[in-house]
């Protein structure tokens, strides 16, 4: 099933589009003629991207500054879109972040914020927009999970579980929506060089050394694979063949064998790793 044909009054909402994968997904959608509504907290960055996309691809761009951790801020998004007389045909729930380190050393507030951003916001925005899509018989939803969704992840326990939720939720939602004209695709990237490592408290070097070079996929390539899969109505996309093999192995190997190896290799659980100020 192809993506809904862009119209003057339709838009693709892309959360987490102030940097990294989300910015490139917005670029990819705009390149294909879709108007975009950019959502994140850093409004200046969103405005910069909005200018770039309207000038380069001549599409309508809108900016909504919102903190997706906050239910009140999220609840204002549909009204903001309605006020602009736009209809959401494509919803990309991409905003997210991770903490690093053992749960017993973590900060309660940050761990809960992660659940609110990575899980609660995805459920909230899907629920807010999916009924309208079904009634119009057109819509496509893209949720960003991770290859961390395919097995528990010691060192990022909450993050891995949040992404397992996104994958499970997206798969179930996609089946529920069969025949309605609305599709759901879950994007499961492996490592991607973005602002993600810095936000989680790793240096670029620590992040780079944590996984082999051949697993890293550039954000633009991840975004293209994601939008291609969304266009094809595929339920799950894992960019990069090494990451596809890794996800398959994680699925097949017993946790009793896999998890001790992952814990041993995780940079945030190694004896030398020190939590960065502000990381949690
Ligand atoms: N990079 C990787 O290796 C990797 C691998 C697998 C999956 N992922 C997933 O890919 C997605 C995008 O991450 P990225 O790698 O592109 O990292 P990034 O460059 O740090 O981008 C994260 C985006 O999420 C937004 N965001 C975070 N908290 C938010 C909040 N409370 N409210 C609104 N927006 C918020 C950020 O915007 P503001 O700060 O402006 O609000 C930013 O635009 C995430 O869901 C991440 O879990 C990343």
Topology:
Layout: E1 10-15, H1 20-31, E2 36-40, H2 43-57, E3 61-65, H3 71-75, H4 77-83, E4 87-93, H5 108-136, E5 139-144, H6 157-176, E6 182-187, H7 196-200, H8 204-210, H9 219-232, E7 236-237, H10 241-252, H11 255-265
Parallel strand pairs: 1-2, 1-4, 2-3, 4-5, 5-6, 6-7
Helix pairs in contact: 1-2, 1-9, 5-6
The structure holds NADP nicotinamide-adenine-dinucleotide phosphate (NAP).
What are its keywords?
280 residues; alpha/beta; seven-stranded parallel sheet; binds NADP nicotinamide-adenine-dinucleotide phosphate
Radius of gyration: 18 Å
Which sheet architecture does the biggest sheet show?
7 strands, parallel
User: Could you give the count of β-strands?
Assistant: 7
Distance between the termini: 42 Å
Structure overview:
It is built from 11 helices and 7 strands. It is α/β, with parallel strands linked by helices and 280 residues long. It has helices at residues 20-31, 43-57, 71-75, 77-83, 108-136, 157-176, 196-200, 204-210, 219-232, 241-252, 255-265, and strands at residues 10-15, 36-40, 61-65, 87-93, 139-144, 182-187, 236-237. Helix 1 (20-31) crosses helix 9 and helix 5 (108-136) runs parallel beside helix 6 (157-176). Helices cover 49% and strands 13% of the residues. The chain has a 7-stranded parallel beta sheet with strand order 3-2-1-4-5-6-7, sandwiched between helices. The model has no long low-confidence stretch (mean pLDDT 95). Helix 1 (20-31) links the parallel strand 1 and strand 2 (36-40). The longest helix is centred in the middle third of the chain and has 29 residues, at 108-136. It has one domain: 3-Layer(aba) Sandwich (Rossmann fold), CATH 3.40.50. The N and C termini lie far apart (42 Å). Bound molecules: NADP nicotinamide-adenine-dinucleotide phosphate (NAP).
């Amino acid at each position: 099933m192809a993506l809904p044909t862009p119209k003057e009054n339709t838009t693709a909402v892309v959360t987490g589009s102030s940097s990294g994968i989300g910015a490139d997904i917005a670029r990819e959608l705009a390149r294909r003629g879709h108007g975009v509504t950019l959502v994140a907290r850093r409004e200046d960055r969103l405005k910069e991207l909005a200018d770039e996309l309207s000038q380069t691809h001549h599409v309508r761009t809108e900016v909504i500054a919102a903190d997706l951790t906050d239910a009140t801020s999220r609840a204002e998004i549909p009204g903001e879109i309605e006020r602009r007389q736009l209809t959401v045909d494509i919803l990309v729930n991409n905003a997210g972040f991770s903490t690093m380190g053992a749960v017993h050393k973590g900060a309660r507030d940050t761990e809960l914020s992660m659940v609110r951003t990575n899980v609660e916001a995805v459920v909230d925005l899907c629920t807010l927009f999916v009924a309208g899509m079904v009634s119009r018989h057109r819509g496509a939803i893209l949720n960003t999970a991770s290859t961390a969704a395919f097995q528990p992840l010691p060192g990022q326990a909450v993050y891995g579980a949040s992404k397992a939720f996104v994958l499970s939720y997206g798969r179930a939602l996609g089946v529920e929506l069969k025949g309605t004209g609305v599709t759901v695709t879950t994007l499961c990237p492996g490592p991607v060089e973005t602002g993600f490592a810095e936000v989680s408290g790793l240096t670029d070097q620590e992040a780079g050394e944590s996984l082999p070079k051949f697993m890293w996929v550039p954000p633009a390539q991840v975004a293209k694979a994601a939008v291609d899969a969304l266009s094809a109505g595929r339920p799950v996309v894992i960019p990069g063949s090494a990451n596809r093999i890794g996800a398959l192995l994680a699925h097949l190997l017993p946790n009793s064998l896999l998890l001790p190896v992952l814990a041993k290799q995780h940079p945030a659980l190694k004896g030398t790793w020190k939590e960065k100020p502000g990381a949690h």
